Amino acid sequence: MVTFRKITEENFDAILRMDAGDGHAFVPPNAEWLAQAWLYYENHDVYPFAIYEGETPVGLMELDEDLDARTMFLWRVMVHKPHQGKGYGRAAVEKLIALCRESGKYDVLGLGCKPENTAGMGLYKSLGFTPTGEVEHGEVQMCLIL
C-alpha cells in the first residue's frame, strides 16, 4: 500500500535521484518541482510529497490546493523508472482521490496530462477523469467530480 510522506533531509537525496525515464518529456526534473514548490511556499497551497511503498520511495507527487474554488489540482506525479509497471502510480492517484473525498474540502480534483502520454491519459480516464476541453502548456486539462 502506498503512503505519502513529506520531503525531508532523510529522503531528499533519494527524491532528487528519482527519474521517470522519459527524458523529461512528461515531467520536469525533480529538483525543478521542489524549486517551484518553494516559490509558492508562502502561499501555503503547493505541496510536494514523496510516494512510498513500505520504506522505499517510489515516486513524487505535487499538489496545488485552491480552497476558495474547492479544488485540488494534481500538478505532477511521477514514478521512478525501476518502480514503473507495478501499480504505484494508480495506487497513488486512487489514494489521493480517496483523501480528497474524505476531507470534504474539495468538489473537484483536476490535473493536466500531455496527450502523447498515452499511459497517463489511459490511467486518468480509467479512474473517471474527463477532459475539460481546455489545453494549458500543451497539457489536456482533466477533472474528476468528487
Structure explained in plain terms:
This protein has 146 residues and is an alpha+beta fold. It has a single domain (2-145), classed as Gcn5-related N-acetyltransferase (GNAT) (Aminopeptidase). It has four helices and seven strands. The chain has a seven-stranded mixed sheet with strand order 1-2-3-4-5-7-6. A hairpin with a 4-residue loop joins strand 3 and strand 4 (71-79). The protein starts with a strand and ends with a strand.
Structure at a glance:
Strand 4, helix 3 (88-103) and strand 5 form a beta-alpha-beta unit. The protein has 146 residues and is of the alpha+beta class.
How would a textbook summarize the main sheet?
A: 7 strands, mixed
Give average pLDDT, whole number. 91
Principal-axes shape call: globular
Cα radius of gyration in angstroms:
14 Å
State the domain count. 1
Question: Number of DSSP helices?
Answer: 4
Residues in helices, as a percent range: 25-40%
Counting copies of identical and different chains, the oligomeric state is single chain
Low-confidence stretches: none
Structural class: alpha+beta
Topology:
Layout: E1 2-6, H1 12-17, H2 30-39, E2 46-53, E3 56-66, E4 71-79, H3 88-103, E5 108-113, H4 118-126, E6 130-136, E7 139-145
Parallel strand pairs: 4-5
Antiparallel strand pairs: 1-2, 2-3, 3-4, 5-7, 6-7
